[in-house]
Amino acid sequence: MTLLELLDYASVIVFALTGALVASRAQLDIVGFAFVAALTATGGGTVRDVILDRNPVFWVAEPGFILAAVAAAALVFFTAHLFESRLKLLTWLDALALAVAVPAGTGVAMALGHGAAVVLLMGVATGCLGGLMRDVVCNEVPLVLKQGELYVTAALAGAAAAILASQVAPESVALPACAAVTFTLRAGSLLFGWRLPVYRSRPPRR
Amino acid sequence: MTLLELLDYASVIVFALTGALVASRAQLDIVGFAFVAALTATGGGTVRDVILDRNPVFWVAEPGFILAAVAAAALVFFTAHLFESRLKLLTWLDALALAVAVPAGTGVAMALGHGAAVVLLMGVATGCLGGLMRDVVCNEVPLVLKQGELYVTAALAGAAAAILASQVAPESVALPACAAVTFTLRAGSLLFGWRLPVYRSRPPRR
Amino acid sequence: MTLLELLDYASVIVFALTGALVASRAQLDIVGFAFVAALTATGGGTVRDVILDRNPVFWVAEPGFILAAVAAAALVFFTAHLFESRLKLLTWLDALALAVAVPAGTGVAMALGHGAAVVLLMGVATGCLGGLMRDVVCNEVPLVLKQGELYVTAALAGAAAAILASQVAPESVALPACAAVTFTLRAGSLLFGWRLPVYRSRPPRR
Fold first, then answer.
1. What is this model's ipTM?
2. Could you give the C-alpha distances from C193 to B75, C155, C156, C189, C196, in angstroms and in order?
3. C143: closest CA among C177, C93, C100?
4. DSSP code of A80?
5. Which end of chain B is more exposed for a tag (fewer CB within 10 A), N or C?
């Protein structure tokens, strides 16, 4: 298994766990868990593959991804009640999923020889869109747009780190560096309140 | 016209009727009816064709699909007031649309030679995503995720029935069997409350 | 730069401004502004290119589009407070974006030799879907489905005007005519309340 496949698997499994946790908040049945989990797990990578015209889409080529997502959904269905705070678990698993999905998107775009702007966008899209679909479909406030937290910023910084690192190091260093930067920024935002200034409207000039 | 084209037409027309009914609940004008109807009618099949890299997408190849969706929207615009309960009509038309869209997705994926996991997912996606787009865009609670009803389960069981039946019978038997299983489960859920157990959080273990 | 590229650039920049304005209403940080702006700016054209199988997608081929969207987002981040009514500014910029995106979609579909139904739908989809994604993701009531305003109708009429004009005039006339018709109808609806009759349920016949 290549590093990129490994990242895709990790991203699918951890995003599927988050999808199933959101399904538990909506009190769906086990097939509903699997549906939301599969949508969350494959959403970002599917958009990446369709936009970059990779054929076949990663989970069509290797249906093991679907089985992994369904297994993750079943695991959550039977164990989620063991956790005290499902929202906290969800937030941290989502941070972990972001940190593996961003290098998965970045790595594919770099391997196809795209320039920096496309690589950055594919990192952000692969990292953010699966969770965004999950939250829109389940009518949750999207984590990706939660005010006063680093999320897209963490993805963008991770993708930028991958581009910089790939100038001087092989993929096996650049993609883990991307994951580390993404997770550090997202975790720092959750734990210590790291943030960028948000827009605040001021009174118009006189 | 092949059986697959027939299923695509039936799916487009019946989903268009549901889209127009949702538009009537939002009190849109006739062009708004046509817009929501066309989105609902083509959404699932478009995702199917893009993911499976079928070119051209079914309604680009045969614009009659669009005309059929627009005609269905106009029909609803002028007649919806004749029905006592538009919500009930919507729910049952949606069940019918699901029952023709699942075999339409399943049949295309089987005809392209995909394995069971991809066939199942394409059946579910083609059946569920058009209605999901309709409900997200019009800010309705998605029927597909309504708690305590069989919906994705009906689609999944129908797609599984198609796979099993296709081992021993031709497509002309397998796809109608898929439609019958899907509709029976969905209708049984609506009429008799058939359901799977839903997730309920329990207190954490001590 | 061809006329179609020019329309794509104008559409990206003006839709990015609207995305950033919606981000300002959600009080996001500057990276959130860029994310919503890029999604809004590229959403409609990406769907167009994926459905019509244009490879590569327009902004993958020319990453200048992304830079333009990000620059527009930054501009709004630092200047939006200068405007008295951001909602009014948003509505009018959105009308302008619609009026350049519809000919951008229409022109591409006509250049690929598609028939009238596909050209109309691509005009509407390219014009409407970016803003629809923006509003769904940011949990705003979609402008495109706002009751009692011409929006999809303006897009549809513009696309129809392009088809008619292209029978007797070159693209350099047909596409500006499309933009003029779209903007006139949308602006007339905003300024003078032009509208089509909306659906109103009546009591069922006895």
1. 0.93
2. 26, 17, 18, 5, 10
3. C93
4. G
5. C
Measure CB to CB from residue A200 to each of C27, C34, C84 and give the nearest one: C27
Those residues whose C-beta lies under 8 Å from the C-beta of residue B140, and which sit 6 or more positions away, are: B22, B25, B134
Using CB atoms, list chains with 3+ pairs below 8 Å to chain B: A, C
Cβ atoms of A20 and A27 closer than 8 Å: no
Q: What is the pLDDT of residues C29-46, one digit of tens each?
A: 999 999 999 999 999 999
In angstroms, the first-to-last Cα distance of chain A is 63
Q: Rounded to the nearest 5°, which phi and psi values hold at B198?
A: -95, 160
CA–CA dist C57, C47 (Å, integer): 9
User: Cβ of A113 under 8 Å from any chain C Cβ?
Assistant: no
Contact C135, C82 (CB under 8 A): no
Q: Do the chains contact at A50 and B50, CB–CB below 8 Å? A: yes
- The minimum CA-CA distance between B201 and chain C, rounded to whole Å, is 28
Task: Determine the distance in angstroms separating the CA of C106 from the nearest CA of chain A, rounded to an integer.
Answer: 20
Tokens of B161: 């029935």
Distance of CA A125 to the CA centre of its chain: 8
pTM value is: 0.94
Q: Which run of H or of E encompasses A58? A: helix A58-61
Which residues face A29 on adjacent strands? B198
User: Rounded to 5 degrees, what are φ and ψ at B196?
Assistant: -95, 155
Residues C152-189: tens digit of each pLDDT: 999 999 999 999 999 999 999 999 999 999 999 999 99
Give me the residue label for tokens 């959080």. Answer: B201
CA distance C120 to chain A (A): 23
